[in-house]
Specification:
Largest sheet: 5 strands, antiparallel
Number of helices: 4
Number of domains: 1
CATH class: Alpha Beta
Organism: Terricaulis silvestris
CATH architecture: Roll
CATH topology: Thiol Ester Dehydrase, Chain A
Strand content: 25-35%
EC number: 4.2.1.119
Order of helices and strands: EHHHHEEEE
CATH superfamily: Hotdog Thioesterase
GO molecular function, one term: (3R)-hydroxyacyl-[acyl-carrier-protein] dehydratase activity
Distance between the termini: 36 Å
Shape: elongated
Keywords: Lyase
InterPro entries: Fatty_acid_synthase (IPR003965), HotDog_dom_sf (IPR029069), MaoC-like_dom (IPR002539), UPF0336/Enoyl-CoA_hydratase (IPR050965)
Strand order of the largest sheet: 1-3-4-5-2
Oligomer: single chain
Structural class: alpha+beta
Helix content: 10-25%
């Protein structure tokens, strides 16, 4: 599944329990590209020879590559353009391998009127396995006054 067209939800539009999901098939070129952008050239991500000797038995995607899929949901779908990240916690629970399909889901768990903030439950899965979980706080834009 590719990410649907961008949508903007304003503070007045969102409700506790709303969810959005983005699925991404992890390619070797994604991992190499993320290493280039981030500067993280840990051979566990780039060298099959090195990674084969680790407990993972092969190359794995960067944890923050997986976390970036959460950012994709927040920045394009919920709440979407205009949302401002305040904070993000992450717990990495299992490796993501090249060839996996990661499903990143964001759910609104709390809305705070003061400052127009939302607390979001964030989760990434590969199949039935939760590979990453965390919580984000975002500032949600208000509907423009006409």
């Amino acid at each position: 599944m590719t990410l649907p067209e961008t949508q903007t939800l304003y503070f007045e539009d969102v409700r506790v329990g709303m969810r959005e999901t983005y699925s991404k098939h992890v390619k070797a070129s994604d991992v190499v590209g993320f290493a280039e952008i981030s500067g993280d050239r840990n051979p566990i991500h780039l060298s099959e020879h090195f990674a084969a000797k680790t407990p993972f038995g092969g190359r794995i995607a960067h944890g923050l590559y997986t976390a970036s899929l959460i950012s994709a949901v927040i920045g394009t779908r919920m709440p979407g353009p205009g949302a401002i990240y305040i904070s993000q916690t992450l717990r990495f629970l299992a490796p993501v391998r090249i060839g996996d399909t990661v499903e990143a889901t964001v759910e609104i768990v709390e809305l705070v009127e003061k400052g127009r903030r939302g607390k979001l439950k964030c989760e990434c899965r590969v199949g039935d396995t939760v590979v990453l979980e965390g919580e984000a706080e975002v500032k949600i834009p208000t509907r423009p006054i006409p």
